[in-house]
Amino acid sequence: MTDASTAAPNTNSRNARRQRPDMAEQLQQLRAGAGSTDAGADASATQPAPAQQQQQQRPPRAKQQRPHGQQQPQQGRKPRGQQPQQQQQPEAQRAPRKVNPVLERLFALYPQLFGARFVPLKLGVYEELIARHPEDFKAEDLKIAMGQHARSTRYLESVAAGHARHDLDGNALDPVAPEHVHHAILELHRRRSHRNPGEDLRPQLVTRIAKAIEASGLDHEAYAVLVRSRDANNNAVVDEALAELAQQAAKREALLRAFEASGRSEQEFADMYGMKPGDVTRTLQRVRDDKKRAEAAAAAAAVAAEAAASAAPEVQAAPEAEAAPAAPEAPAAD
Predict the structure, then answer these.
(1) Is residue 266 within 8 Å of 277, Cβ to Cβ?
(2) CA angle, 266 then 267 then 268, to 5°
(3) Of the candidates 5, 2, 1, which has an alpha carbon nearest to the alpha carbon of residue 13?
(4) Per-residue confidence (pLDDT) for residue 291, from 0 to 100
(5) Quick one: which of 189, 182, 252 has its CA closest to 223?
(6) Measured distance CA(193)–CA(199) in Å, rounded
(7) Domain count across the chain
């Protein structure tokens, strides 16, 4: 009978202890394990990382096609060298004003009158130009050109300044009439007010009218009568200028009375009131001149009134001296 322990292994019993390999087998196993470890390391090195693998597996994004020469600007930032659309378009340039060819010819003939410096022209210069240059100017064209010249701001400035009128030879003649100076000042004020609608230019206008009144050499009331018109606003400006002049005259007269009452010299009077001696001298002299002119005007008015009074009876007696024409006699009866 065969022993059960040798005939078949007992599976229920503990596995027999494995025999330890000898030294040669251990070395062989170590060599085999090192080779497999190197191969695994090489494989892991050549294999892409998970993030790289996903990136490589992602299909490339198709480029958006744009028209040739067009670039997409970055969000929130303007491309360098690119201006806003409204600045890229050039502004509409104002067309240069075309100069009247007749005025160009006048400038060539008389640069001292129609050049960089404008001066008031003598009355009747239009007829003189036609007479001197019949081959250069047509009457109607010259009339239009002269009107443009006379309405220009530069010409009105020269008139408003009270410069003398000039002939074609450049000779200074009589000064511009006071009413022409006055109207030029008003026109210049109107144009400036149109250009500066929010600015109050009335005080400047009143001051300039006051200076024009003094420069005219006319009596203040005579000037007012000369320049008054149907425009109530312009008349009010004249009244304000007259009031300003009257106030200035009152101050000058008060200074003269104070000087005469002080009994001092002009230098001492100026030192006493803290004024410049030159200003005191000019003010006192002006008051004296105003008084002389007022006395001369009063004397002239008295002479004119006396002459008118003496001539009145002769004028009234003249119609009585003339005999009335005799009525035709009736024919005698047969």
Answers:
(1) yes
(2) 95
(3) 5
(4) 84
(5) 182
(6) 7
(7) 1
